[in-house]
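4.2 Preliminary Data

To establish feasibility before requesting continued support, the project team ran the inverse folding procedure on a target of 369 residues. The structure was first converted into the token representation described in Section 3, and no sequence information of any kind was made available to the design step. The complete token record follows.
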């Protein structure tokens, strides 16, 4: 059991108060990104400190109710209610204190790519892009389409979507913590619009999820970049712009190539491409530095192959199945409209269970007084 020691309490409260003082300093807000980072950490600590204080008060009230309950039936009955509340707060506190990746508090960049299945795969990739956009809207997050390449029938060959929280969130609620489990190959089974015989086809699309990196997270030397400009193109490769506004950036040391063509301005496309490049470099740095991050990265898309699926969307049965958690729902239409809460929660809870199990039975939650 996790011991709620005085040192732990004092340390968390002191850090929370110190961050509050820093955020009250107008000079901090001269750097919006730094202010946002501090605000996120303050919100994370705030959730822990508030729950910790509630748990302490409940433990105190419970002790008093038990002591006086022998002479007061009402207090004796209240003790049972307080005991249940104490246990709920202990479980919430345990989850808040589960060690998390420092990247979990970040915004996210989601890349969706068509894979096997030709035009049908591109149409399914467009469905996934809309699903994540709608989920973000339902959650109250902002979205920005950084880049996209369409197909002849209105599908998506590839698309890059930035998802940002509007305010600081408690641990486990930020875009990356919620969406990182979406990374992998998504398989669809349905009758394609191009199928004249009504036969069900199987195709796949890949999703890659990257924590969005701040400029301070990744140092990029301009001399390591090769920047090419070209005319943006639409479905089938036809030119849709008469000026060289599209930008392709190659990072020489890693060989990472990023291109953006959605904006009309070359400068705007370069800025968007740099956002994606920073995110990829941050993910690469984490991959090289930590074995756990490497394993997580390997679990993401290697090839958009149907055999590596993490989830199946079966249209004839209106069913969505997550093959990692075993979660299944017969509300496929609602899922594709952004109702991802239950699927996301199942993945997050599975990860938390693994992390708590790794802590061992000797350090899982506040002690039960």
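Position-by-position output of the design step:
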């Amino acid at each position: 059991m996790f011991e709620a020691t005085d040192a732990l309490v004092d340390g968390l409260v002191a850090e929370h108060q110190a961050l509050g003082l820093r955020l009250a300093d107008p000079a901090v807000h001269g750097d919006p990104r730094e202010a946002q980072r501090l605000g996120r950490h303050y919100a994370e600590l705030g959730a822990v400190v508030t729950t910790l204080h509630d748990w302490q008060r409940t433990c105190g009230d419970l002790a008093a109710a038990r002591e006086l309950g022998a002479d007061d039936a009402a207090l004796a009955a209240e003790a049972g209610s307080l005991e249940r509340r104490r246990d709920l707060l202990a479980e919430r506190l345990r989850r808040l204190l589960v060690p998390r990746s420092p990247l979990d508090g970040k915004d996210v960049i989601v890349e969706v790519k068509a894979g096997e299945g030709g035009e049908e795969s591109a149409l399914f990739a467009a469905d996934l892009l809309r699903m994540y956009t709608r989920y973000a809207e339902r959650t109250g997050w902002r979205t920005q389409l950084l880049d996209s390449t369409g197909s002849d029938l209105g599908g998506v060959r590839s698309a890059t979507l930035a998802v940002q929280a509007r305010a600081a969130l408690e641990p486990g609620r930020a875009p990356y913590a919620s969406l990182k489990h979406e990374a992998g190959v998504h398989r669809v089974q349905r009758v394609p619009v191009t199928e004249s015989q009504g036969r069900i086809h199987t195709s796949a699309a890949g999703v890659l999820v990257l924590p969005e990196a701040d400029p301070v997270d990744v140092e990029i030397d301009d001399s390591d970049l090769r920047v090419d400009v070209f005319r943006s193109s639409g479905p089938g490769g036809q030119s849709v712009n008469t000026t060289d506004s599209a930008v392709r950036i190659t990072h020489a040391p890693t060989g990472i190539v990023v291109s953006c063509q959605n904006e009309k301005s070359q400068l705007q496309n370069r800025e968007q491409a740099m956002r994606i490049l920073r995110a990829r470099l941050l993910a690469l740095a984490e991959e090289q530095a930590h074995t756990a991050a490497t394993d997580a990265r390997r679990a993401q898309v290697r090839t958009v192959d149907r055999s590596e699926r993490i989830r199946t969307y079966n249209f004839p049965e209106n069913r969505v199945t997550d093959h990692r958690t075993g979660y299944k729902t017969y509300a496929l239409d609602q899922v594709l409209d952004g109702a991802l809460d239950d699927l996301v929660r199942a993945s997050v809870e599975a990860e938390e269970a693994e992390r708590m199990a790794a802590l061992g039975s000797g350090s899982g939650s506040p002690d039960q007084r």
